[in-house]
TrEMBL record:
Pathway: Amino-acid biosynthesis; L-leucine biosynthesis; L-leucine from 3-methyl-2-oxobutanoate: step 1/4. Mn(2+) binds at D16, H204, H206, N240. CDD domains: DRE_TIM_IPMS. This is 2-isopropylmalate synthase. Residues 7-269 form the Pyruvate carboxyltransferase domain.
Protein backbone atom coordinates (compact mmCIF):
# COMPACT_ATOMS: atom_id res chain seq x y z
CA UNK A 1 0.00 0.00 0.00
CA UNK A 2 3.08 2.23 -0.21
CA UNK A 3 1.71 4.15 -3.20
CA UNK A 4 -1.81 4.46 -1.78
CA UNK A 5 -3.15 6.73 0.93
CA UNK A 6 -4.57 5.03 4.00
CA UNK A 7 -8.37 4.98 4.28
CA UNK A 8 -9.24 4.71 7.98
CA UNK A 9 -12.10 2.34 8.79
CA UNK A 10 -14.05 3.53 11.84
CA UNK A 11 -16.44 0.79 12.90
CA UNK A 12 -19.48 1.86 14.92
CA UNK A 13 -21.31 -1.49 15.08
CA UNK A 14 -21.08 -1.46 18.88
CA UNK A 15 -22.49 2.08 19.15
CA UNK A 16 -24.65 3.17 16.21
CA UNK A 17 -25.33 -0.43 15.18
CA UNK A 18 -26.59 -1.15 18.68
CA UNK A 19 -29.18 1.60 18.28
CA UNK A 20 -31.13 -0.69 15.94
CA UNK A 21 -34.34 -1.64 17.81
CA UNK A 22 -33.60 -4.95 19.51
CA UNK A 23 -29.86 -4.96 18.83
CA UNK A 24 -28.78 -4.12 22.39
CA UNK A 25 -25.73 -6.14 23.38
CA UNK A 26 -24.38 -7.27 26.73
CA UNK A 27 -20.85 -6.46 27.86
CA UNK A 28 -19.61 -9.95 26.94
CA UNK A 29 -21.26 -9.80 23.51
CA UNK A 30 -19.60 -6.44 22.83
CA UNK A 31 -16.26 -7.93 23.82
CA UNK A 32 -16.69 -10.84 21.39
CA UNK A 33 -17.49 -8.49 18.52
CA UNK A 34 -14.69 -6.07 19.45
CA UNK A 35 -12.19 -8.94 19.44
CA UNK A 36 -13.42 -10.02 16.00
CA UNK A 37 -13.10 -6.44 14.73
CA UNK A 38 -9.56 -6.33 16.05
CA UNK A 39 -8.74 -9.52 14.10
CA UNK A 40 -10.30 -7.82 11.07
CA UNK A 41 -7.74 -5.02 11.70
CA UNK A 42 -10.33 -2.26 11.94
CA UNK A 43 -8.54 1.02 12.67
CA UNK A 44 -11.05 2.50 15.15
CA UNK A 45 -13.73 0.70 17.17
CA UNK A 46 -16.45 2.96 18.55
CA UNK A 47 -17.38 0.85 21.56
CA UNK A 48 -20.36 2.80 22.86
CA UNK A 49 -21.71 5.87 24.59
CA UNK A 50 -20.31 5.72 28.16
CA UNK A 51 -22.67 8.36 29.62
CA UNK A 52 -25.76 6.48 28.44
CA UNK A 53 -25.83 3.98 31.30
CA UNK A 54 -23.59 2.14 33.75
CA UNK A 55 -23.79 -0.89 31.49
CA UNK A 56 -22.58 1.10 28.49
CA UNK A 57 -19.74 2.57 30.56
CA UNK A 58 -18.65 -0.88 31.70
CA UNK A 59 -18.81 -2.26 28.16
CA UNK A 60 -16.66 0.56 26.73
CA UNK A 61 -14.24 0.16 29.63
CA UNK A 62 -14.00 -3.61 29.04
CA UNK A 63 -13.34 -3.14 25.31
CA UNK A 64 -10.73 -0.45 26.07
CA UNK A 65 -8.96 -2.75 28.50
CA UNK A 66 -9.02 -5.73 26.10
CA UNK A 67 -8.34 -4.40 22.59
CA UNK A 68 -4.69 -3.57 21.90
CA UNK A 69 -4.29 -3.26 18.13
CA UNK A 70 -7.21 -0.93 17.31
CA UNK A 71 -8.06 2.52 18.64
CA UNK A 72 -11.04 2.35 21.02
CA UNK A 73 -13.46 5.27 20.83
CA UNK A 74 -16.21 6.50 23.14
CA UNK A 75 -19.02 8.83 22.02
CA UNK A 76 -19.86 11.95 24.04
CA UNK A 77 -22.20 14.85 23.53
CA UNK A 78 -20.53 18.24 23.82
CA UNK A 79 -21.25 18.21 27.54
CA UNK A 80 -18.68 18.22 30.33
CA UNK A 81 -20.14 15.19 32.14
CA UNK A 82 -20.34 13.13 28.93
CA UNK A 83 -16.73 13.88 28.03
CA UNK A 84 -15.41 13.12 31.51
CA UNK A 85 -17.35 9.85 31.58
CA UNK A 86 -15.89 8.84 28.20
CA UNK A 87 -12.40 9.77 29.37
CA UNK A 88 -12.81 7.61 32.47
CA UNK A 89 -14.03 4.62 30.43
CA UNK A 90 -11.08 4.89 28.04
CA UNK A 91 -8.35 5.15 30.70
CA UNK A 92 -7.10 1.61 30.12
CA UNK A 93 -7.01 1.84 26.32
CA UNK A 94 -3.77 1.24 24.49
CA UNK A 95 -5.01 3.92 22.06
CA UNK A 96 -8.15 5.88 22.93
CA UNK A 97 -10.30 8.47 21.17
CA UNK A 98 -13.16 10.68 22.34
CA UNK A 99 -15.77 11.45 19.69
CA UNK A 100 -17.84 14.49 20.64
CA UNK A 101 -20.67 16.14 18.73
CA UNK A 102 -23.26 18.89 18.69
CA UNK A 103 -26.01 19.73 16.20
CA UNK A 104 -25.32 22.47 13.65
CA UNK A 105 -28.37 22.66 11.36
CA UNK A 106 -30.68 25.66 11.87
CA UNK A 107 -33.64 23.45 12.75
CA UNK A 108 -31.66 21.49 15.35
CA UNK A 109 -30.06 24.57 16.92
CA UNK A 110 -33.37 26.41 17.18
CA UNK A 111 -35.83 23.62 17.97
CA UNK A 112 -33.75 21.04 19.85
CA UNK A 113 -30.82 22.85 21.43
CA UNK A 114 -32.48 26.28 21.72
CA UNK A 115 -29.04 27.81 21.25
CA UNK A 116 -27.64 30.53 19.00
CA UNK A 117 -24.93 29.71 16.43
CA UNK A 118 -22.35 31.55 18.56
CA UNK A 119 -23.28 29.46 21.60
CA UNK A 120 -22.99 26.25 19.57
CA UNK A 121 -19.48 27.17 18.37
CA UNK A 122 -18.38 28.06 21.91
CA UNK A 123 -19.73 24.79 23.30
CA UNK A 124 -18.08 22.74 20.54
CA UNK A 125 -14.69 24.36 21.14
CA UNK A 126 -15.01 23.92 24.92
CA UNK A 127 -15.92 20.25 24.44
CA UNK A 128 -12.93 19.54 22.18
CA UNK A 129 -10.53 21.25 24.59
CA UNK A 130 -11.90 19.26 27.51
CA UNK A 131 -11.68 16.02 25.55
CA UNK A 132 -8.04 16.80 24.78
CA UNK A 133 -7.40 16.74 28.54
CA UNK A 134 -8.32 13.05 28.49
CA UNK A 135 -7.12 11.95 25.01
CA UNK A 136 -4.71 13.30 22.44
CA UNK A 137 -6.99 11.79 19.78
CA UNK A 138 -10.26 13.76 19.53
CA UNK A 139 -12.94 13.63 16.84
CA UNK A 140 -15.71 16.19 16.34
CA UNK A 141 -19.00 15.79 14.45
CA UNK A 142 -21.49 18.50 13.49
CA UNK A 143 -24.74 16.57 13.81
CA UNK A 144 -27.11 16.99 10.84
CA UNK A 145 -24.29 18.45 8.75
CA UNK A 146 -26.22 17.62 5.57
CA UNK A 147 -28.83 20.25 6.45
CA UNK A 148 -26.40 22.76 7.95
CA UNK A 149 -25.42 26.03 6.28
CA UNK A 150 -22.07 25.74 4.50
CA UNK A 151 -20.65 28.98 5.92
CA UNK A 152 -21.50 27.92 9.46
CA UNK A 153 -20.02 24.44 8.92
CA UNK A 154 -16.77 26.04 7.74
CA UNK A 155 -16.74 28.31 10.78
CA UNK A 156 -17.33 25.63 13.42
CA UNK A 157 -14.99 23.09 11.84
CA UNK A 158 -12.17 25.63 11.59
CA UNK A 159 -12.71 26.43 15.29
CA UNK A 160 -12.67 22.82 16.52
CA UNK A 161 -9.60 21.96 14.42
CA UNK A 162 -7.86 24.95 16.00
CA UNK A 163 -8.97 23.66 19.41
CA UNK A 164 -7.32 20.27 18.78
CA UNK A 165 -9.73 17.99 16.90
CA UNK A 166 -7.60 15.67 14.75
CA UNK A 167 -10.61 14.24 12.93
CA UNK A 168 -13.71 16.09 11.74
CA UNK A 169 -16.61 13.89 10.77
CA UNK A 170 -19.40 14.99 8.42
CA UNK A 171 -22.54 12.96 9.14
CA UNK A 172 -25.54 12.59 6.87
CA UNK A 173 -27.63 12.08 10.00
CA UNK A 174 -31.00 11.63 8.32
CA UNK A 175 -29.81 9.88 5.13
CA UNK A 176 -30.97 12.73 2.88
CA UNK A 177 -27.82 13.28 0.78
CA UNK A 178 -27.18 12.08 -2.76
CA UNK A 179 -23.66 11.18 -3.94
CA UNK A 180 -22.77 14.14 -6.18
CA UNK A 181 -24.05 16.65 -3.63
CA UNK A 182 -22.37 14.96 -0.65
CA UNK A 183 -19.05 14.59 -2.47
CA UNK A 184 -19.24 18.26 -3.43
CA UNK A 185 -19.82 19.21 0.22
CA UNK A 186 -16.64 17.42 1.30
CA UNK A 187 -14.66 19.06 -1.51
CA UNK A 188 -15.92 22.55 -0.58
CA UNK A 189 -15.17 22.08 3.12
CA UNK A 190 -11.63 20.91 2.41
CA UNK A 191 -11.11 23.83 0.04
CA UNK A 192 -12.65 26.60 2.15
CA UNK A 193 -11.46 25.75 5.69
CA UNK A 194 -8.02 27.36 6.16
CA UNK A 195 -6.67 24.67 8.51
CA UNK A 196 -8.32 21.71 6.76
CA UNK A 197 -4.93 20.09 6.21
CA UNK A 198 -4.51 19.69 9.98
CA UNK A 199 -7.39 17.19 10.32
CA UNK A 200 -8.61 13.97 8.75
CA UNK A 201 -12.01 14.39 7.10
CA UNK A 202 -14.44 11.60 7.92
CA UNK A 203 -17.99 10.71 6.83
CA UNK A 204 -20.85 8.92 8.56
CA UNK A 205 -23.76 8.16 6.23
CA UNK A 206 -27.16 6.71 7.01
CA UNK A 207 -29.02 4.50 4.55
CA UNK A 208 -32.56 5.93 4.54
CA UNK A 209 -32.51 6.24 0.73
CA UNK A 210 -30.21 3.25 0.20
CA UNK A 211 -27.30 5.59 -0.61
CA UNK A 212 -25.06 5.31 2.47
CA UNK A 213 -22.26 3.42 0.70
CA UNK A 214 -22.53 5.51 -2.49
CA UNK A 215 -22.41 8.76 -0.50
CA UNK A 216 -19.43 7.55 1.54
CA UNK A 217 -17.50 6.54 -1.58
CA UNK A 218 -18.29 9.87 -3.27
CA UNK A 219 -16.77 11.57 -0.23
CA UNK A 220 -13.68 9.34 -0.40
CA UNK A 221 -13.17 10.42 -4.01
CA UNK A 222 -13.21 14.02 -2.79
CA UNK A 223 -10.56 13.47 -0.12
CA UNK A 224 -12.32 12.01 2.90
CA UNK A 225 -9.91 9.56 4.52
CA UNK A 226 -12.06 8.01 7.21
CA UNK A 227 -15.37 6.22 6.72
CA UNK A 228 -17.66 5.39 9.63
CA UNK A 229 -19.54 2.17 8.96
CA UNK A 230 -20.97 -0.98 10.53
CA UNK A 231 -20.80 -4.71 9.90
CA UNK A 232 -23.78 -5.79 7.74
CA UNK A 233 -24.86 -2.13 7.54
CA UNK A 234 -26.46 -2.46 10.99
CA UNK A 235 -27.86 0.72 12.50
CA UNK A 236 -30.94 2.64 13.50
CA UNK A 237 -33.74 3.14 10.97
CA UNK A 238 -32.42 1.82 7.62
CA UNK A 239 -28.89 1.38 8.96
CA UNK A 240 -25.42 2.72 8.16
CA UNK A 241 -22.91 2.30 5.38
CA UNK A 242 -21.91 -1.38 5.32
CA UNK A 243 -18.25 -1.92 6.25
CA UNK A 244 -17.86 -4.89 3.91
CA UNK A 245 -19.18 -2.93 0.91
CA UNK A 246 -16.96 0.10 1.59
CA UNK A 247 -13.83 -2.00 2.03
CA UNK A 248 -14.35 -4.24 -0.97
CA UNK A 249 -15.43 -1.38 -3.24
CA UNK A 250 -12.21 0.48 -2.54
CA UNK A 251 -10.13 -2.71 -2.76
CA UNK A 252 -11.76 -3.90 -6.01
CA UNK A 253 -11.93 -0.54 -7.81
CA UNK A 254 -8.40 0.71 -7.28
CA UNK A 255 -8.75 2.50 -10.61
CA UNK A 256 -11.29 4.87 -9.01
CA UNK A 257 -9.84 5.40 -5.53
CA UNK A 258 -6.45 6.75 -4.54
CA UNK A 259 -6.50 4.93 -1.22
CA UNK A 260 -6.89 1.51 0.36
CA UNK A 261 -7.62 0.02 3.79
CA UNK A 262 -5.40 -2.14 5.98
CA UNK A 263 -8.12 -4.66 6.78
CA UNK A 264 -7.67 -8.42 6.67
CA UNK A 265 -10.64 -8.98 4.39
CA UNK A 266 -10.60 -12.76 4.94
CA UNK A 267 -12.21 -12.04 8.34
CA UNK A 268 -15.24 -10.23 6.87
CA UNK A 269 -17.62 -13.19 6.61
CA UNK A 270 -16.80 -14.40 10.12
CA UNK A 271 -17.47 -10.92 11.52
CA UNK A 272 -20.74 -10.76 9.61
CA UNK A 273 -21.93 -14.09 10.98
CA UNK A 274 -20.94 -13.17 14.52
CA UNK A 275 -22.78 -9.84 14.45
CA UNK A 276 -25.83 -11.45 12.86
CA UNK A 277 -25.90 -14.21 15.48
CA UNK A 278 -25.50 -11.89 18.46
CA UNK A 279 -27.98 -9.24 17.32
CA UNK A 280 -30.49 -11.65 15.79
CA UNK A 281 -30.56 -9.69 12.53
CA UNK A 282 -30.27 -12.25 9.69
CA UNK A 283 -28.29 -11.32 6.59
CA UNK A 284 -30.46 -11.34 3.47
CA UNK A 285 -29.29 -13.95 0.92
CA UNK A 286 -28.65 -11.37 -1.83
CA UNK A 287 -26.70 -9.01 0.43
CA UNK A 288 -23.47 -7.85 -1.26
CA UNK A 289 -20.26 -9.56 -0.11
CA UNK A 290 -21.67 -11.47 2.89
CA UNK A 291 -25.04 -12.78 1.63
CA UNK A 292 -25.37 -16.52 1.02
CA UNK A 293 -25.94 -15.89 -2.71
CA UNK A 294 -23.18 -13.29 -3.13
CA UNK A 295 -20.96 -15.75 -5.02
CA UNK A 296 -23.64 -18.20 -6.20
CA UNK A 297 -24.36 -18.70 -9.91
CA UNK A 298 -27.53 -20.43 -11.08
CA UNK A 299 -27.82 -19.15 -14.64
CA UNK A 300 -26.38 -21.69 -17.07
CA UNK A 301 -24.61 -18.94 -19.00
CA UNK A 302 -23.01 -17.62 -15.80
CA UNK A 303 -22.01 -21.09 -14.62
CA UNK A 304 -20.39 -21.87 -17.95
CA UNK A 305 -18.49 -18.60 -17.91
CA UNK A 306 -17.23 -19.02 -14.34
CA UNK A 307 -16.09 -22.59 -15.04
CA UNK A 308 -14.11 -21.41 -18.06
CA UNK A 309 -12.68 -18.32 -16.38
CA UNK A 310 -13.78 -17.07 -12.95
CA UNK A 311 -13.43 -13.39 -13.77
CA UNK A 312 -16.07 -13.55 -16.50
CA UNK A 313 -18.75 -13.15 -13.81
CA UNK A 314 -16.86 -12.67 -10.53
CA UNK A 315 -15.11 -9.40 -9.71
CA UNK A 316 -13.83 -10.71 -6.34
CA UNK A 317 -12.66 -14.06 -5.05
CA UNK A 318 -14.99 -15.55 -2.45
CA UNK A 319 -11.97 -16.64 -0.40
CA UNK A 320 -10.74 -13.05 -0.17
CA UNK A 321 -13.67 -12.08 2.04
CA UNK A 322 -13.68 -15.27 4.10
CA UNK A 323 -16.00 -17.66 2.29
CA UNK A 324 -14.81 -21.26 2.64
CA UNK A 325 -15.46 -24.15 0.29
CA UNK A 326 -14.63 -26.70 3.00
CA UNK A 327 -17.34 -28.62 4.76
CA UNK A 328 -16.98 -29.60 8.39
CA UNK A 329 -16.57 -33.37 8.02
CA UNK A 330 -15.93 -34.17 11.67
CA UNK A 331 -18.53 -36.46 13.18
CA UNK A 332 -19.61 -37.68 16.59
CA UNK A 333 -16.41 -39.70 16.96
CA UNK A 334 -14.14 -36.71 16.36
CA UNK A 335 -11.94 -35.36 19.10
CA UNK A 336 -11.95 -32.05 20.94
CA UNK A 337 -8.64 -30.91 19.44
CA UNK A 338 -9.77 -31.45 15.84
CA UNK A 339 -12.95 -29.54 16.67
CA UNK A 340 -10.96 -26.65 18.17
CA UNK A 341 -8.60 -26.48 15.17
CA UNK A 342 -11.51 -26.27 12.73
CA UNK A 343 -13.12 -23.48 14.75
CA UNK A 344 -9.89 -21.50 14.58
CA UNK A 345 -9.59 -22.13 10.83
CA UNK A 346 -12.93 -20.40 10.28
CA UNK A 347 -12.06 -17.55 12.65
CA UNK A 348 -13.82 -18.66 15.85
CA UNK A 349 -11.63 -18.22 18.93
CA UNK A 350 -12.98 -19.32 22.31
CA UNK A 351 -11.54 -17.58 25.35
CA UNK A 352 -11.66 -20.37 27.92
CA UNK A 353 -11.58 -24.15 28.37
CA UNK A 354 -15.12 -23.96 29.74
CA UNK A 355 -16.41 -22.29 26.54
CA UNK A 356 -14.62 -24.89 24.39
CA UNK A 357 -16.06 -27.77 26.43
CA UNK A 358 -19.59 -26.37 26.21
CA UNK A 359 -19.28 -25.79 22.44
CA UNK A 360 -17.84 -29.30 21.98
CA UNK A 361 -20.71 -30.82 23.96
CA UNK A 362 -23.20 -29.04 21.71
CA UNK A 363 -21.26 -30.18 18.65
CA UNK A 364 -21.58 -33.80 19.78
CA UNK A 365 -25.31 -33.36 20.30
CA UNK A 366 -25.66 -31.82 16.83
CA UNK A 367 -23.58 -34.59 15.25
CA UNK A 368 -26.14 -37.11 16.54
CA UNK A 369 -28.87 -35.22 14.66
CA UNK A 370 -27.09 -34.17 11.45
CA UNK A 371 -25.00 -36.25 9.07
CA UNK A 372 -23.04 -33.29 7.69
CA UNK A 373 -21.98 -30.26 9.74
CA UNK A 374 -21.17 -27.08 7.85
CA UNK A 375 -19.14 -24.07 8.90
CA UNK A 376 -22.41 -22.12 9.23
CA UNK A 377 -23.60 -24.75 11.73
CA UNK A 378 -20.46 -24.23 13.79
CA UNK A 379 -20.93 -20.46 13.89
CA UNK A 380 -24.54 -20.87 15.02
CA UNK A 381 -23.55 -23.54 17.52
CA UNK A 382 -20.91 -21.38 19.20
CA UNK A 383 -23.16 -18.31 19.20
CA UNK A 384 -25.99 -20.36 20.69
CA UNK A 385 -23.65 -21.64 23.40
CA UNK A 386 -22.55 -18.17 24.47
CA UNK A 387 -25.70 -16.05 24.03
CA UNK A 388 -26.97 -14.92 27.40
CA UNK A 389 -24.61 -17.24 29.28
CA UNK A 390 -23.57 -14.48 31.67
CA UNK A 391 -27.10 -13.92 33.02
CA UNK A 392 -29.44 -16.83 32.44
CA UNK A 393 -32.19 -16.33 34.98
CA UNK A 394 -34.48 -18.53 32.93
CA UNK A 395 -33.31 -21.84 31.45
CA UNK A 396 -35.11 -24.55 29.49
CA UNK A 397 -35.03 -27.89 31.29
CA UNK A 398 -37.44 -29.87 29.13
CA UNK A 399 -40.37 -29.45 26.79
CA UNK A 400 -43.02 -31.60 25.13
CA UNK A 401 -45.20 -30.36 22.28
CA UNK A 402 -48.19 -32.15 20.72
CA UNK A 403 -49.50 -31.02 17.34
CA UNK A 404 -51.83 -33.10 15.19
CA UNK A 405 -54.57 -32.64 12.61
CA UNK A 406 -57.89 -31.67 14.13
CA UNK A 407 -56.46 -31.07 17.61
CA UNK A 408 -55.38 -27.85 19.33
CA UNK A 409 -51.59 -27.83 19.81
CA UNK A 410 -50.39 -28.13 23.41
CA UNK A 411 -47.00 -27.49 24.98
CA UNK A 412 -45.67 -28.62 28.36
CA UNK A 413 -42.41 -27.03 29.52
CA UNK A 414 -40.20 -27.15 32.59
CA UNK A 415 -38.02 -24.09 33.21
CA UNK A 416 -35.36 -23.26 35.75
CA UNK A 417 -36.35 -19.87 37.15
CA UNK A 418 -33.69 -18.40 39.45
CA UNK A 419 -32.51 -21.93 40.19
CA UNK A 420 -35.97 -23.37 40.94
CA UNK A 421 -37.68 -25.74 38.51
CA UNK A 422 -41.18 -24.64 37.46
CA UNK A 423 -43.62 -26.51 35.18
CA UNK A 424 -46.01 -24.82 32.77
CA UNK A 425 -48.51 -25.80 30.07
CA UNK A 426 -50.63 -24.04 27.48
CA UNK A 427 -52.52 -24.49 24.24
CA UNK A 428 -52.07 -22.24 21.21
CA UNK A 429 -52.74 -21.62 17.55
CA UNK A 430 -49.68 -23.70 16.64
CA UNK A 431 -46.80 -25.51 18.39
CA UNK A 432 -44.67 -22.36 18.63
CA UNK A 433 -47.55 -20.25 19.94
CA UNK A 434 -48.34 -22.95 22.52
CA UNK A 435 -44.70 -23.07 23.59
CA UNK A 436 -44.48 -19.31 24.08
CA UNK A 437 -47.74 -19.33 26.05
CA UNK A 438 -46.46 -22.16 28.24
CA UNK A 439 -43.28 -20.20 28.98
CA UNK A 440 -45.33 -17.11 29.81
CA UNK A 441 -47.53 -19.13 32.18
CA UNK A 442 -44.38 -19.49 34.30
CA UNK A 443 -42.49 -16.21 33.86
CA UNK A 444 -45.42 -13.80 33.33
CA UNK A 445 -42.98 -11.31 31.75
CA UNK A 446 -45.51 -8.74 30.55
CA UNK A 447 -43.72 -8.46 27.21
CA UNK A 448 -45.17 -8.02 23.73
CA UNK A 449 -43.92 -10.19 20.85
CA UNK A 450 -42.91 -7.77 18.08
CA UNK A 451 -41.14 -10.13 15.67
CA UNK A 452 -40.77 -13.85 15.04
CA UNK A 453 -38.65 -15.05 12.13
CA UNK A 454 -37.02 -18.30 11.03
CA UNK A 455 -33.93 -18.67 8.87
CA UNK A 456 -32.48 -21.98 7.65
CA UNK A 457 -28.75 -21.96 8.39
CA UNK A 458 -27.89 -24.50 5.69
CA UNK A 459 -29.76 -26.56 3.09
CA UNK A 460 -31.48 -29.89 3.63
CA UNK A 461 -34.36 -31.13 5.76
CA UNK A 462 -31.98 -31.74 8.67
CA UNK A 463 -30.72 -28.14 8.60
CA UNK A 464 -30.61 -26.14 11.78
CA UNK A 465 -33.24 -23.44 11.99
CA UNK A 466 -32.15 -20.10 13.39
CA UNK A 467 -35.01 -18.27 15.10
CA UNK A 468 -35.13 -14.58 15.97
CA UNK A 469 -37.60 -13.28 18.54
CA UNK A 470 -38.10 -9.60 19.33
CA UNK A 471 -39.78 -8.64 22.61
CA UNK A 472 -40.86 -5.23 23.90
CA UNK A 473 -41.56 -4.14 27.46
CA UNK A 474 -41.98 -0.61 28.70
CA UNK A 475 -40.26 0.87 25.65
CA UNK A 476 -37.27 -1.48 25.88
CA UNK A 477 -36.82 -3.73 22.83
CA UNK A 478 -34.55 -6.78 22.73
CA UNK A 479 -33.81 -9.56 20.26
CA UNK A 480 -33.30 -13.18 21.18
CA UNK A 481 -31.78 -15.88 18.97
CA UNK A 482 -31.75 -19.66 19.12
CA UNK A 483 -30.74 -22.48 16.80
CA UNK A 484 -31.65 -26.15 16.65
CA UNK A 485 -32.60 -28.84 14.14
CA UNK A 486 -36.02 -28.79 15.83
CA UNK A 487 -37.59 -25.44 14.99
CA UNK A 488 -39.88 -25.47 18.05
CA UNK A 489 -36.94 -25.99 20.39
CA UNK A 490 -35.03 -23.25 18.54
CA UNK A 491 -38.04 -20.98 19.08
CA UNK A 492 -38.09 -21.70 22.81
CA UNK A 493 -34.36 -20.97 23.04
CA UNK A 494 -34.80 -17.67 21.22
CA UNK A 495 -37.70 -16.61 23.44
CA UNK A 496 -35.77 -17.40 26.61
CA UNK A 497 -32.66 -15.68 25.27
CA UNK A 498 -34.71 -12.53 24.74
CA UNK A 499 -36.19 -12.74 28.24
CA UNK A 500 -32.72 -13.05 29.76
CA UNK A 501 -31.49 -10.08 27.72
CA UNK A 502 -34.45 -8.02 28.89
CA UNK A 503 -33.24 -8.46 32.46
CA UNK A 504 -29.55 -7.86 31.72
CA UNK A 505 -29.39 -5.06 29.15
CA UNK A 506 -31.12 -2.32 31.14
CA UNK A 507 -32.19 1.11 29.96
CA UNK A 508 -29.84 3.48 28.16
CA UNK A 509 -30.08 7.01 26.87
CA UNK A 510 -30.02 7.77 23.18
CA UNK A 511 -27.08 10.09 22.39
CA UNK A 512 -29.29 12.48 20.47
CA UNK A 513 -31.68 13.07 23.38
CA UNK A 514 -31.29 15.71 26.04
CA UNK A 515 -30.31 14.57 29.53
CA UNK A 516 -29.06 11.17 30.60
Amino acid sequence: MSDKEHLIIFDTTLRDGEQSPGASMTRDEKLRIATALERLKVDVIEAGFPAASNGDFEAVQAVANTVKDSTVCGLARALERDIDRAGEALKGANAGRIHTFIATSPIHMEKKLKMSPDQVVDQAVTAVKRARQHCADVEFSPEDAGRSELDFLCRILEAVIEAGAGTVNIPDTVGYAVPHQFGSLIAQLRERIPNADKAVFSVHCHNDLGLAVANSLAAVQQGARQVECTVNGLGERAGNAALEEIVMSVRTRQDSFGCDTRLDTTQIVNCSRLVSGITGFPVQPNKAIVGANAFAHESGIHQDGVLKHRETYEIMRAQDVGWHQNRMVLGKHSGRNAFRVRLEEIGIHLDSVEELNEAFRRFKDLADKKHEIFDEDLQALVTDATLGAANERVKLISMRVCSETGETPRADVVLSLDGEEEPGAAIGGGPVDATFRAIESIVNSGTTLKLYSVNAITSGTDAQGEVTVRLEKGGQVVNGAGADTDIVIASAKAYLNALNKLDSVGQRAHPQTGDV
